[in-house]
UniProtKB/TrEMBL annotation:
<protein>
    <submittedName>
        <fullName>Polyprenyl synthetase family protein</fullName>
    </submittedName>
</protein>
<dbReference type="InterPro" id="IPR008949">
    <property type="entry name" value="Isoprenoid_synthase_dom_sf"/>
</dbReference>
<keyword id="KW-0460">Magnesium</keyword>
<keyword id="KW-0479">Metal-binding</keyword>
<keyword id="KW-0414">Isoprene biosynthesis</keyword>
<dbReference type="Pfam" id="PF00348">
    <property type="entry name" value="polyprenyl_synt"/>
</dbReference>
<comment type="similarity">
    <text>Belongs to the FPP/GGPP synthase family.</text>
</comment>
<dbReference type="InterPro" id="IPR033749">
    <property type="entry name" value="Polyprenyl_synt_CS"/>
</dbReference>
<dbReference type="InterPro" id="IPR000092">
    <property type="entry name" value="Polyprenyl_synt"/>
</dbReference>
<keyword id="KW-0808">Transferase</keyword>
Length: 380
């Protein structure tokens, strides 16, 4: 790669050596800041009340950060398939992914009734507070739900606009756009399967895996890797290796999220620890617990984990958490995460990526999965 190395505050062009994933994320955040400033100017021109109440909340939510994993994986996919020279397209693709993630999270919090996100009130909770403080008429919750849906829609519109602009300026734009289209559809399908499973009270392991794959594995890792690779015109063999690596890493990420949803510390995760259990959300962790309880004849655990109405009491949630420990479900999921992470690294090696890129990918998988992995030729 040739040319000056940009700082996080400068527009990206060509770089003289590959960014690390961390540096790429900083560069994407700088690009994201420019995009958001531009979108906010347009929003104010459209309508000042809308800009203040909705657009500004979306902008603030995106700027507040998050793991930025999708951005980092898109960068790895680009590097793994020979990305070099001008980095603008891949950085703007990363920024579009962060805007899409904002849409997903804002809508997800509305559907789940989650009060916290990224260590602060969820967007719909903040909007309800605004309603009360402004002494508006009507139920605050109904207003907040409607306004939060619009906020998520706006984030999606901004994401689509940015990705489309990027695709139009790229020689590989059609391939990039096809990956984006597929990812959006999978994201919605996964979210629907999630609420459908809750409504039907299913606890099947196969269904839990399907939901985790659609809602998280594809959207968090597999598609971002492919989006980055699409910008290089990657061949079918490299894309196949990336997709396999991404699906395994994405499932490992979701399984870790399942564990954090049951056993995590809200001060660390920035979101409530009991929501998944209290609503009996179908997760891989819950499905494993139900299966193990049935296989061992542990009626107490089976009763605690059985599908049913949401759990109103802290005591019932504690019983559910204890059952996941007693059946061995937590240990099984931990083992599965490690297995998936190691398999992901083996698939990624098939891309023929340089050692630097393989190390960056391994570090990202460890971060996403929350586990240390043994890497080929290295100590664990």
């Amino acid at each position: 790669m040739r040319g000056p190395r940009p700082t996080a505050a400068e527009p990206a062009g060509s770089v003289d050596r590959p960014f690390t994933a961390h540096e790429a994320v900083r560069a994407v955040e700088a690009e994201l800041g420019r995009v958001l400033d531009e979108r906010m100017c347009r929003a104010r021109e459209t309508d000042p009340v809308f800009a203040r109440d909705v657009a500004d909340r979306v902008s603030a939510f995106v700027r507040r950060g998050g793991k930025r994993l999708r951005t980092a994986f898109a960068w790895c996919g680009w590097l793994a398939t020979g990305g070099s020279g001008d980095v603008t397209a891949v950085l703007r693709t990363g920024a579009a992914l962060e805007l899409l993630q904002a849409c997903a999270l804002i809508h997800d919090d509305v559907m789940d009734g989650s009060p916290l996100r990224r260590g602060a009130p969820a967007v719909h909770v903040d909007l309800a507070r605004m309603h009360r403080s402004a002494r508006m008429t009507g139920p605050p919750e109904a207003f907040a739900t409607s306004a939060a849906v619009l906020a998520g829609d706006l984030a999606l519109a901004w994401a689509d606009d940015l990705l489309t602009e990027t695709a139009l300026g790229s020689p590989h734009g059609p391939a990039l756009h096809r990956e984006w289209q597929a990812m959006r559809g999978e994201m919605v399908a996964g979210q629907y399967r999630d609420i459908h499973a809750q409504a039907t009270g299913t606890s099947g392991l196969d269904e839990a895996v399907s939901i985790a794959t659609l809602k998280s594995a594809l959207y968090t890792v597999e598609r971002p890797l492919a989006l980055g690779a699409a910008l290089t015109g990657a061949d079918a063999s490299a894309l196949d290796a990336l997709r396999s690596a991404g699906r395994c890493a994405g499932l490992a990420f979701q399984l870790r999220d399942d564990l954090l949803g049951a056993f995590g510390d809200p001060a660390v995760t920035g979101k409530p620890a009991d929501d998944d259990l209290r609503t009996r959300k179908l997760t891989y962790l819950l499905a494993v617990g139900v299966r193990l309880a049935g296989a061992s004849g542990d009626e107490e655990s089976a009763d605690a984990l059985a599908p049913g109405t949401p759990l109103p009491s802290d005591e019932a949630v504690a019983r559910m958490r204890a059952a996941l420990e007693r059946t061995g479900a937590r240990a099984v999921v931990e083992s599965k995460i490690t297995q998936l992470g190691a398999t992901s690294l083996r698939h990624f090696d098939r891309t023929g990526a340089e050692p630097f890129v393989r190390r960056e990918f391994a570090t990202l998988v460890e971060r996403a999965a929350g586990v240390a992995l043994e890497r080929a030729g290295e100590a664990a």
